[in-house]
């Protein structure tokens, strides 16, 4: 069953949403207090997070940033009554992938969850505290923002880590360019598209020592991260 971490401090709404999701064969861990979320996140290891914004002790925006530190590629949906443009932008800047305004229909929420899970291939993306990803002769530690080859360490930025995590998660499969832009930047504007080109160039440079690794540009489509080993 697909694990959803659902954070909501309104008991009545939370009960309805939790039961509706469970009726669709999702496994739901519901948390009502912002101070308890990260502990539950580590223990439950969800594949997607649905976060209310207004919460006791720690709001959804801050929680999204905390979650991004632990799992840079974790899909996050915000649920909120805040409807101003600046609130939506703040949600994306905090690391959200989608933003659902209250009141909402369960059908809409479920469709958005399913779409986001398809984008991320519906698989657990949480990196364990001492976890790593082997990419050819490199070892990638997403939670520490580090890339090793032999005894050489390269510290990565947050964006570099997000992008490499997406490519590693989908290695040997094509990732649409727009999907990357929406996950990393929250929109596919021309400015962010140019930023993506810069970050792809950097990652190619970081991985150049291993000929078995190649980030291929598929013009008009996206990227294919070839990892032969």
SSE diagram, text form:
Blueprint: E1 2-7, H1 11-23, E2 26-31, H2 37-44, E3 48-52, H3 60-70, E4 76-80, H4 85-93, E5 98-101, H5 106-119, E6 133-135, E7 138-141, E8 146-149, E9 152-155, H6 158-169, E10 174-176, H7 177-184, H8 190-206, E11 213-218, E12 222-227
Parallel strand pairs: 1-2, 1-3, 3-4, 4-5
Antiparallel strand pairs: 6-7, 7-8, 8-9, 10-12, 11-12
Protein name: DNA-binding response regulator
Keywords: DNA-binding, Phosphoprotein, Two-component regulatory system
DNA-binding region: 130-227
Structure description:
- This protein has 229 residues and is of the alpha/beta class.
- It has two domains: 2-121, Rossmann fold (3-Layer(aba) Sandwich), CATH 3.40.50; 133-227, Orthogonal Bundle (Arc Repressor Mutant, subunit A).
- 40% of the residues lie in helices and 24% in strands.
- The chain is built from eight helices and twelve strands.
- The strands form three sheets. Strands 2-1-3-4-5 form a five-stranded parallel beta sheet, with helices on both faces. It has a four-stranded antiparallel beta sheet with strand order 6-7-8-9, with no helix packed on it.
- Helix 4 links the parallel strand 4 (76-80) and strand 5.
- Helix 6 crosses helix 8.
- The longest helix is centred in the last third of the chain and has 17 residues, at 190-206.
- It starts with a strand and ends with a strand.
- Keywords: DNA-binding, Phosphoprotein, Two-component regulatory system.
